[in-house]
Design a protein that fits this description.
The chain is α+β, with helices and mostly antiparallel strands. The chain folds into 2 domains: 44 residues, no CATH class; 63 residues, no CATH class. Helices cover 40% and strands 20% of the residues. The protein is built from 5 helices and 7 strands. It has a 4-stranded mixed sheet, with helices on both faces. A 3-stranded antiparallel sheet has the order 2-1-3. β5, α4 and β6 form a beta-alpha-beta unit. α2 packs antiparallel against α3. It is globular, with a radius of gyration of 17 Å. The mean pLDDT is 78. Bound molecules: zinc ion.
Length: 141
Protein backbone atom coordinates (compact mmCIF):
# COMPACT_ATOMS: atom_id res chain seq x y z
CA UNK A 1 0.00 0.00 0.00
CA UNK A 2 1.19 3.47 -0.78
CA UNK A 3 -0.17 6.77 0.44
CA UNK A 4 -0.25 9.83 -1.78
CA UNK A 5 -1.02 13.41 -1.01
CA UNK A 6 -3.45 14.45 -3.71
CA UNK A 7 -4.64 17.82 -4.87
CA UNK A 8 -7.55 18.84 -7.07
CA UNK A 9 -7.60 21.83 -9.42
CA UNK A 10 -9.44 23.77 -6.71
CA UNK A 11 -6.46 23.36 -4.40
CA UNK A 12 -8.16 20.92 -2.07
CA UNK A 13 -5.61 18.57 -0.57
CA UNK A 14 -6.31 15.14 0.79
CA UNK A 15 -4.64 11.79 1.25
CA UNK A 16 -5.49 8.50 -0.36
CA UNK A 17 -4.16 4.97 -0.30
CA UNK A 18 -3.34 2.95 -3.42
CA UNK A 19 -2.12 -0.61 -3.82
CA UNK A 20 0.72 0.66 -6.02
CA UNK A 21 1.84 3.71 -7.96
CA UNK A 22 0.58 1.98 -11.11
CA UNK A 23 -2.86 1.85 -9.62
CA UNK A 24 -2.79 5.58 -9.15
CA UNK A 25 -1.77 6.14 -12.77
CA UNK A 26 -4.45 3.79 -14.03
CA UNK A 27 -7.26 5.41 -12.03
CA UNK A 28 -5.99 8.81 -12.95
CA UNK A 29 -6.01 8.06 -16.68
CA UNK A 30 -9.53 6.71 -16.51
CA UNK A 31 -10.69 9.77 -14.55
CA UNK A 32 -11.76 7.58 -11.68
CA UNK A 33 -10.21 9.77 -9.04
CA UNK A 34 -12.41 12.34 -7.41
CA UNK A 35 -11.81 15.15 -4.95
CA UNK A 36 -13.42 14.30 -1.61
CA UNK A 37 -14.46 17.94 -1.15
CA UNK A 38 -15.78 19.12 -4.49
CA UNK A 39 -15.98 15.90 -6.58
CA UNK A 40 -13.70 17.47 -9.15
CA UNK A 41 -11.99 14.83 -11.28
CA UNK A 42 -8.78 16.66 -12.06
CA UNK A 43 -6.54 15.18 -9.41
CA UNK A 44 -2.79 15.38 -9.19
CA UNK A 45 -0.24 14.01 -6.79
CA UNK A 46 1.02 16.85 -4.70
CA UNK A 47 4.71 17.05 -3.90
CA UNK A 48 5.76 15.34 -0.71
CA UNK A 49 7.80 17.39 1.69
CA UNK A 50 11.31 16.01 1.65
CA UNK A 51 13.27 15.47 4.82
CA UNK A 52 16.78 16.68 5.30
CA UNK A 53 19.61 15.71 7.54
CA UNK A 54 23.11 17.03 7.95
CA UNK A 55 25.56 18.70 10.26
CA UNK A 56 24.34 21.17 12.85
CA UNK A 57 25.97 23.98 10.88
CA UNK A 58 24.06 23.18 7.77
CA UNK A 59 20.79 23.02 9.67
CA UNK A 60 21.59 26.26 11.43
CA UNK A 61 22.36 28.02 8.17
CA UNK A 62 19.18 26.65 6.74
CA UNK A 63 17.09 28.01 9.57
CA UNK A 64 18.78 31.40 9.26
CA UNK A 65 18.08 31.56 5.57
CA UNK A 66 14.54 30.77 6.48
CA UNK A 67 14.14 33.40 9.17
CA UNK A 68 15.83 36.27 7.35
CA UNK A 69 13.29 36.33 4.61
CA UNK A 70 10.06 35.18 6.09
CA UNK A 71 8.04 38.17 4.80
CA UNK A 72 7.78 36.53 1.45
CA UNK A 73 6.88 32.95 2.06
CA UNK A 74 7.07 31.74 -1.50
CA UNK A 75 10.41 33.38 -2.02
CA UNK A 76 11.70 31.83 1.15
CA UNK A 77 10.62 28.40 0.09
CA UNK A 78 12.27 28.87 -3.27
CA UNK A 79 15.47 30.04 -1.64
CA UNK A 80 15.29 27.16 0.76
CA UNK A 81 14.88 24.78 -2.10
CA UNK A 82 17.79 26.30 -4.01
CA UNK A 83 19.94 26.22 -0.91
CA UNK A 84 19.19 22.58 -0.27
CA UNK A 85 19.77 21.65 -3.90
CA UNK A 86 23.18 23.34 -3.82
CA UNK A 87 24.32 22.11 -0.44
CA UNK A 88 22.69 18.77 0.11
CA UNK A 89 22.95 15.56 -1.82
CA UNK A 90 19.64 14.21 -3.08
CA UNK A 91 19.13 10.57 -2.13
CA UNK A 92 15.41 10.19 -2.89
CA UNK A 93 13.60 7.27 -1.31
CA UNK A 94 16.86 5.87 0.09
CA UNK A 95 16.76 8.70 2.58
CA UNK A 96 16.17 6.69 5.76
CA UNK A 97 18.87 4.17 4.79
CA UNK A 98 21.39 6.84 3.87
CA UNK A 99 20.66 8.98 6.89
CA UNK A 100 21.57 6.04 9.14
CA UNK A 101 24.85 5.53 7.27
CA UNK A 102 25.71 9.17 7.83
CA UNK A 103 24.57 9.11 11.44
CA UNK A 104 26.46 5.99 12.49
CA UNK A 105 29.60 6.91 10.59
CA UNK A 106 30.81 9.72 12.84
CA UNK A 107 33.48 10.84 10.41
CA UNK A 108 30.95 11.54 7.78
CA UNK A 109 29.06 14.76 8.00
CA UNK A 110 27.35 14.58 4.70
CA UNK A 111 24.28 16.69 4.17
CA UNK A 112 21.55 14.83 2.37
CA UNK A 113 17.89 15.23 1.54
CA UNK A 114 15.19 12.95 0.28
CA UNK A 115 11.81 11.57 1.08
CA UNK A 116 10.79 9.45 4.04
CA UNK A 117 7.46 8.01 5.09
CA UNK A 118 6.05 9.09 8.44
CA UNK A 119 6.84 5.61 9.78
CA UNK A 120 10.46 5.91 8.71
CA UNK A 121 10.67 9.35 10.30
CA UNK A 122 9.27 7.94 13.52
CA UNK A 123 11.85 5.15 13.57
CA UNK A 124 14.67 7.58 12.89
CA UNK A 125 13.61 9.88 15.68
CA UNK A 126 13.45 6.91 18.07
CA UNK A 127 17.09 6.30 17.17
CA UNK A 128 17.88 9.88 18.06
CA UNK A 129 18.22 11.14 14.51
CA UNK A 130 16.40 14.40 14.16
CA UNK A 131 15.17 15.58 10.82
CA UNK A 132 13.70 18.71 9.39
CA UNK A 133 10.77 18.50 7.02
CA UNK A 134 10.32 21.45 4.76
CA UNK A 135 7.60 22.36 2.30
CA UNK A 136 8.81 21.88 -1.25
CA UNK A 137 7.45 24.20 -3.88
CA UNK A 138 7.68 24.15 -7.63
CA UNK A 139 9.98 26.71 -9.19
CA UNK A 140 7.54 27.61 -11.89
CA UNK A 141 4.23 28.41 -10.24
ZN1 LIG B 1 -11.64 19.78 -4.76
Amino acid sequence: MIKYNLKCTNEHEFESWFSSSDEFDKLSKKNLLECIYCSCKKIEKSIMAPSISGSMNKKQELMETNIKNFEDKKNVLLQLRRYIENNFEYVGKDFSKRVREVYYDKKSNKAIYGTATSKEKEELSEEGIDLISIPWINKDN
